[in-house]
Amino acid sequence: MTADPGSTTADLAGVVDEAVRARPATALRPYVAWYSGYRQRGIAPAVHRGLPSPYLTFIVTLDEPLVVAGHPDPAQPPDRYDTLLGGLHTAPALITHDGRQSGVQVAVHPLAARALFGVPAGELAGIDLPAGDVLGPVGERLQDALRSAAGWPERFAALDGALLRAARPSGRVPAEVLWAWQALRRSGGALPVAELARETGWSTRHLQERFRRETGLTPKAAARVIRFDRARHLLAGPLPPPRLAELAVRCGYFDQAHLAREFRALAGCAPTAWLAAEGPDAAKFRNVQGGAGRPAPEWEQ
Hints:
By secondary structure, this protein is an alpha+beta fold. The chain has eleven helices and twelve strands. The chain has helices at residues 113-117, 132-135, 137-148, 152-166, 175-187, 193-200, 204-215, 219-235, 244-250, 256-267, 271-278; strands at residues 2-3, 8-12, 15-23, 32-41, 46-50, 56-61, 66-70, 79-81, 83-86, 93-97, 101-108, 128-129.
């Protein structure tokens, strides 16, 4: 586990605001991109949009449950979670807190779902569920270990141990799906499905079916999410945000209007509205997608 030097912590006049990011143990890096620890107290209640991304969401809370007021699937009712596992999705989740929140988020590569959770990511697509439904008693023991740990390094070490014990090296995915996923990530979502199919030697229909089974999205939907994820990272990055027209060109959109339409479809609001509410100058939430904007290693078998 490697701590992020950009981690922050503050405790002023009863306000607690901690955010710690770390890389997992070396043996876990083929499966997990990062850990994000967060603890906040005494801040204003808020609503956060959990945005589509190329990672599964695995959250273990510490002091209070995670409150999901709206799921990517609108048919799923609001709920509270001590632990949460969410698949890839193309609509935002709405998460609320009353001024307090704490936990650790684990960004899991979707093609590692078989190895870590024993199921393909396609079975988790678009839904949120208690992690114990997949992990069994391991999830409850993991939460107990994180709650009793002395600090963030100890919590991340406990995660390392639990995930290493849970990993199933036999949970492999088809090489063609792995290649297609990595090619989409490298291209920023720019490769057309026909080209991906041609390179794998599969028909377009077969690639779409197997790709969706393993990731939860079709190649076309995955490309949309990858482009969007890159655009929102650049928009909220450490540098001054680029003009939207420039951002559209850099991320493979036809024009600024195309970027705006995709942002509204995937985030539920305009780029400028999201940046004002949840950009770097509006640190209301530390958990979901915490530390976004830094590159992470791609999944490999």
